[in-house]
Amino acid sequence: MPGRIFVGVDGGATKTLAVAADEDGLVLGSGESGPSNYHIVGLEGAISNINAAIRSSIAAAGAEAADVAVLGLAGMDTSYDFELFEREAAPRVASRRVYVRHDAEIALVGATLGQPGVIVIAGTGSVAGARNRAGEYARCGGWGYLVGDEGSAYYIACEALRAVLWAYDGRGEPTALVEELTRALGVGSPEELVRKLYVEKLSVTEIARLAPLVTSLAARGDAVARSIVVAAARHLALHVLALVRRLRMEGEQPIKVAVVGGVFRAGSVILEPFRSLLEEHFKVEIIEPQLPPVAGALLLSYMLEGVEVGEGLVENIRAGLRRLGLVS
Which ranges in the chain are annotated with CATH 3.30.420.40? Predict the structure, then answer.
């Protein structure tokens, strides 16, 4: 039987993943179950899936509960969410001590191995989070497609659809987006987009899938597509600027900025303006995430308990994740 058992949980809208380790970071096991976003499966469903993942991760240790667990959960968007979950759900989680955190925070800790920095996640939606040297955390954005998600794939695609209709009207510049997007959506002319959007009601995900067409055209020199991508980069950079100001991180330069999500997979066409906009204000180091979010939750469990996250502990966790097939 090991000493204290630490567990990190990455709980999302499609699955919940847990990884357990001992006090030295030696990984004991992992567990996977269904969603734990309580907005989707309710509190009872979230608790059940979190406990199933935790118990699977600690089964090899012969323990019934963890000693410390950090739950990095999707859906923790407001103080109400945290208050409700900590009051109603956390006491029923299979761990003696439970910390509830936003999923962007565990992604950040995994990305920087617990070092101060900022993470920008730009997929279908967008959100950013930051931790300073004092361990203070704040998030920015993530307010959903109706009033937020600027810089996301959904944002880029919507701006492109708008540009297509403007070009058709004569209000906007000509652009190859007209041909590319009408072909992608299987319509004969821009005016038929209205039926796709308002009658067939394309989902947020279906619209967001158009974003790679926009970034590809931008990389090939289409001026309108390029302007949309630069605007997206500006919005994503504003997330970082806001967080650096809020957490007083100006003295922590160069600031590590981890970038995650499909938008950034477009490469230099988005990364170059993003970096340039940030470097107008401070020095940055754009990084790829070092470890996945579940490892970030596990690292955070040590950090919150005052355990030093040294190189040996990190390497033990990395080796254990590799053995479990969770990292390459």
Answer: 6-113+291-323, 114-289
Nearest to 226 by CA among 268, 179, 278: 268
For 6-113+291-323, CATH number?
3.30.420.40
Strand (E) or helix (H) holding 59: none
Query: Which tens digit of pLDDT belongs to each residue from 224-259?
Result: 999 999 999 999 999 999 999 999 999 999 999 999
Q: Which of 279, 245, 303 is nearest to 112 (CA)?
A: 303
In this structure, how many other beta carbons lie within 10 angstroms of the beta carbon of residue 138?
18
> Distance (Å, rounded) from C-alpha 75 to C-alpha 45?
14
Closest CA to 28 of 53, 6, 50, 51: 6
The beta strand positions in the chain, using DSSP E, are: 6-11, 16-21, 27-33, 66-73, 95-102, 117-122, 126-131, 137-141, 255-260, 284-287
Tracing tokens 């995994």 back to the chain, one arrives at 110
pLDDT, one tens digit per residue, over 40-97 is 999 999 999 999 999 999 998 888 899 999 999 988 888 999 999 999 999 999 999 9
| CATH number of the structural domain 114-289 | 3.30.420.40
Beta bridge partners of 7: 20, 69
The residue behind tokens 């179950």 is: 33
